[in-house]
């Protein structure tokens, strides 16, 4: 309990001293220009490519642009909770498409490769 009170008092003192240091200079004193502009530092992670979740969120948000209220909420919930299709299901779908086209050899291989990339 005593340590908690001490830490609280110390944090208050430090926060007030930082606030006091940030006050504007007196009217008669010249203000020194800061050496660097005061811009918030952007985290390196945000500059990197978006994560899968961020990409999914952007896609779902674009698809839900015309929806409003509860309809939008329900759509976003289902859209964001959709799991990516398993490799086995992708293979089944692509095989069914390929059989309908009756492709052979290199044509089949190219079709299957492209089909699996796009699913």
Taking the sheet with the most strands, its summary is:
none
Share of helical residues: 55-70%
Give the low-confidence spans.
none
User: Helix/strand/pairing class, anyone?
Assistant: mainly alpha
Based on CA atoms alone, the radius of gyration comes out at 29 Å
Strand content: under 5%
Spell out the key features of this protein.
elongated
If you had to describe this structure to a student in words, what would you say it looks like?
This protein has 119 residues and is an all-alpha fold. The protein is built from 6 helices and no strands. Helix 3 runs antiparallel to helix 4 (69-81) and helix 5 (87-101) packs across helix 6 (105-118). The longest helix is centred in the first third of the chain and has 20 residues, at 2-21. The termini are far apart.
Task: Describe the structure concisely.
With 119 residues, this protein is mainly α. The chain is 66% helix and 0% strand. The longest helix has 20 residues, at 2-21.
């Amino acid at each position: 309990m005593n340590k908690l009170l001490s830490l609280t008092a110390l944090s208050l003192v430090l926060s007030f001293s930082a606030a006091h240091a940030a006050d504007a200079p007196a009217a008669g004193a010249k203000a020194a220009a800061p050496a660097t502009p005061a811009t918030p530092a952007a985290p390196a992670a945000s500059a990197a490519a978006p994560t899968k979740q961020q990409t999914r969120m952007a896609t779902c948000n674009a698809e839900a642009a015309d929806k409003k209220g509860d309809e939008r909420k329900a759509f976003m919930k289902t859209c964001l909770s959709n799991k990516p299709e398993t490799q086995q299901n992708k293979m089944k779908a692509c095989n069914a498409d390929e059989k309908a086209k009756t492709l052979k050899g290199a044509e089949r291989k190219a079709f299957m490769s492209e089909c699996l990339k796009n699913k």
